[in-house]
Amino acid sequence: MTLGNVWLRKRKDGLRYGLLVMLVIIQLIVFSGRAMAISANVTQLVFTTPPQTTSQNALASFTVELRRTGGQSEPLDQTGATLSLRTTSSTGQFAENDNSSWAFAPTYDYSVGVATKSFVYKDTTAGSFTITAKVTGGGLQSDVEAIQTINVAGVNMPTNGMPNRAYQNHNSTDFSWSKVTDATSYEMRMAQDTSALNIAPPISVITNSLYRDNLSEGQWYWQVRTLNGTDVSSWSDVWSFVIDTRMPVISTSIQDRRTVSGLQSLDMSTGEELHPNRYDIQIKATDGTVVAEGSRDNDSSASYIFTWDTTQVTNGVYTIVFSAVDAAQNEAAPLQRTITVANTPSPPQVPAPTMTIAGSDGVNVNGLVSAVDATFTVDIDGVARPDVAPTTDTQLQDGMYMWTFTLPKDIQDGYLHKISITAHANGRDSETQQITVTANNAPVIMRTNDPLLEQLSVSLSQPFTPLSTTSSVAPVPVLATPEMQSNQKVSDIHVSPSNDQSDVFVATPTESGWKLFGVLWYWWGLAVLVIFIGGYVTRRFGYSYSTLDT
Questions:
Q1: 3-state SS of 356-376?
Q2: Phi and psi of 514, rounded to 5°?
Q3: For strand 116-122 and strand 239-243, is the pairing parallel, antiparallel, or unpaired?
Q4: If you ran DSSP here, which 8-state letter would residue 169 be given?
Q5: d(Cα 360, Cα 529) in Å, to the nearest integer?
Q6: CB 101 within 8 A of CB 67
Q7: Per-residue model confidence as pLDDT tens for the chain (550 residues)
Q8: Residue 169, CA distances (Å) to 35, 175, 323, 419 in order
Q9: CA distance 129 to 440
């Protein structure tokens, strides 16, 4: 057997294996398409049970079914499908047929190979409600949904119970609630603890009101329900009220007949923390005139503090009156304290100095200040500079003096610097003023190997210009240079004027001859690689071709 025959046999075996793999792939595609087609047949979800009428707390059974477009039942062929149930009633609950677990908005698994799903529903509220069932997942092209109404017959529970969260200063109460149509009677229960409310004996009444007296102090909770023959509604919401017949007692830490000055914190408390109180504090002069007062309403805390500035009244005798009323309208007996105000007159306060910054010429910074003996705090680029001391000079106008200082030599020329200045005089500080300046207090000379750049010596020192509203500072020439690379020679830079102003020169790197050399080196290496690969292919496959030809 020649080498050519061996090569041909390997070609045939490879072709067989390739055809086998293609057949397996085609079968998988067909099977997947069939599975997807089955799930795609489901287009709707319907209730197979008709709309129902049930009673409160009674069980109603429902069944939903997956169907094709034509109405035929269609089971699911894939896992992952779920059935979610919702109702428009706030008290309606669902469970599966075993009734083991009730939920307001459950989600159940939809088994593979079945088209129907059953569940039960119950509600404690009478009325007409909507039930929505939705199936998702399981290979469905889109979610399917079904809606059905259910009518829950029965007696509605009472609403709008009164009193609700009210405070009363008497031991008798009139209970009332909304009247329910067709109600034959009502039952009411009450207790002073919510846990005891469920076991409290119900009180039967004919009308929608009830009077009770001799009730104990404290908080009460109560409920009502409706009766109509054998039908009984659910218990209503829990309502509550507070009975409080005790008068609040005021106390304060302010001592009677004391001398005070400045700010005074006047405190008071009643000790009643269970419900809101109203606090009032009045300060009266000897003639009864109210000179200051404070109050706070609907405060659940047991104390109140009012800050009184005694410097706002003349020295003398004053009376502080404390009063309080609790939420049950029980008024406390007023409490009074007599005090003497004795404030020492304070000297007039010297105004803070005012300061402005006029500008900078790159060498000096100047401005105006309202005190000839002012001192200054200077901050340059966020660093405090106690060595920089502005001095005041000639008075320019009433109360205003000129100040100036020279930029320090250690800040970099030709760059912007942020300067903050604050003036101090008579123990007070002015508002901090800021200015951004370009330092020009030394000539800038670039040293290079280029004779042209050696001649570029730009002097940035400018004469100081006195303050004037019409004077202007001459523009400062700036030498702009691009960022130089670490290995770039200075001699590879040429200088040319910029386009926007004649005093600015821009230095740009020149193109080096090394770039051309690198390009040639790249193409030469690529040619050698192509020749090498061609020779290898010729040596590797050339013999096989010649053998096949024999």
A1: EEEEECCCEEEEEECCCCCEE
A2: -65, -25
A3: unpaired
A4: S
A5: 66
A6: no
A7: 454 454 445 555 555 555 655 555 655 554 444 444 445 588 899 999 999 988 777 889 999 999 988 889 989 888 889 999 999 999 899 998 766 688 999 999 988 888 999 999 998 887 899 999 999 988 888 899 999 999 987 777 788 887 766 888 889 999 999 988 888 999 999 999 999 998 999 999 999 999 999 999 999 999 999 998 878 888 999 999 999 888 889 999 999 999 999 999 999 998 776 566 789 999 999 999 999 999 988 776 778 999 999 999 999 999 999 999 988 888 999 999 999 999 987 666 678 888 888 888 888 888 888 888 888 999 999 999 999 888 887 777 677 888 898 889 888 888 889 999 999 988 889 999 999 998 887 544 444 444 443 343 333 333 333 443 333 333 433 333 344 443 333 334 444 444 444 444 444 444 445 556 666 777 777 777 877 777 676 666 554 434 444 3
A8: 76, 16, 18, 70
A9: 85
Q: Which residues contact 519 (CB under 8 A, 6 or more apart)?
A: none
- Say if pTM beats, i.e. exceeds, 0.70: no
* Cα atoms in the 13 Å half-sphere on the side-chain side of 245: 7
